């Protein structure tokens, strides 16, 4: 997609953000999901959220017409084996380091303030579901999907011999990963709504404040994490595998 385009309505959300990650801020401000909802067109997403597509298009085009101060940081240009390592080293590490911290905070805050603010108990329960989803999810990616994608790259570069995986095609684990992304994303959004967009009440203690700030940061990281996989890594892995099948 070129920055000179003046009609983005039929571009998918994933394509728009893949071209320029700065677009995510505009989309998020209008409640448009750019990670799990990346396959929807801008037109579809705006209709669902009942927002004015002309206004958003104008903002997006204006943004993308301005020079990106960090043009080299564009994961769409990276090799997908490097992208696998990047996701694992940055996002998976972040999740593994922060899940136990947030779990402890959620438990403590729900125990202390749950009677006064019962939504905290529900948030704790939902967070526990997030942990149950993401821990095995990342393990499957690290032990099964990412190694296979790296192998595809190695084969394409003549560094390895191709072997048919036990899951037959990369489309199968990718479909599973995308479903799990949707579930984890939905849980985080339910937490976001219950927390009133992580609004911190005046009477909140430091643990309460830290919990909501940590959840807000986690949500932001998860959105970028899922975007990199759903909108960049997975489609490119499918295309690479299909090239082999066509030969």
Describe this structure in words.
With 247 residues, the protein is mainly α. The chain has 2 domains: 53 residues, no CATH class; 172 residues, no CATH class. It contains 8 helices and no strands. The two termini are 29 Å apart. The mean pLDDT is 91.
Topology:
Elements: H1 13-19, H2 23-29, H3 42-49, H4 53-65, H5 80-113, H6 119-156, H7 171-194, H8 206-246
Helix pairs in contact: 1-8, 5-6, 5-8, 6-7, 6-8, 7-8
Nutshell version of this structure?
The protein is mainly α and 247 residues long.
Say how many strands there are.
0
Spatial shape: globular
Q: What portion of the residues fall into strands of 2 or more residues?
A: under 5%
Helix-strand makeup class: mainly alpha
* Largest sheet properties: none
Write out key terms for the chains shown.
247 residues, mainly alpha, 8 helices
């Amino acid at each position: 997609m070129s920055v000179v385009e003046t009609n983005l309505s039929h571009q998918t959300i994933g394509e728009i953000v893949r071209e320029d990650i700065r677009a995510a801020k505009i989309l998020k401000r209008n409640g448009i999901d750019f990670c799990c909802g990346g396959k929807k067109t801008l037109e579809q997403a705006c209709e669902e959220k009942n927002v004015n597509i002309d206004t958003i298009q104008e903002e997006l085009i204006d943004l993308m017409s301005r020079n990106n101060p960090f043009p080299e940081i564009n994961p769409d240009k990276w090799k997908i084996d490097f992208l696998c390592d990047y996701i694992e080293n940055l996002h998976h590490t972040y999740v593994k380091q922060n899940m136990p911290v947030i779990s402890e905070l959620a438990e403590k805050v729900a125990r202390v303030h749950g009677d006064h603010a019962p939504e905290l108990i529900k948030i704790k329960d939902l967070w526990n579901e997030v942990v149950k989803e993401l821990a095995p999810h990342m393990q499957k990616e690290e032990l099964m999907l990412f190694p296979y994608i790296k192998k595809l790259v190695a084969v394409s570069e003549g560094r390895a011999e191709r072997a048919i995986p036990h899951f037959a095609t990369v489309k199968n684990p990718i479909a599973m990963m995308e479903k799990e992304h949707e579930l984890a994303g939905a849980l985080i959004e339910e937490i976001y709504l219950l927390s009133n967009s992580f609004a911190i009440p005046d009477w909140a203690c430091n643990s309460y404040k830290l919990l909501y700030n940590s959840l807000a940061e986690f949500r932001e990281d998860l959105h970028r994490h899922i975007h990199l996989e759903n909108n960049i890594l997975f489609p490119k892995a499918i295309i690479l595998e299909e090239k082999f099948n066509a030969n």
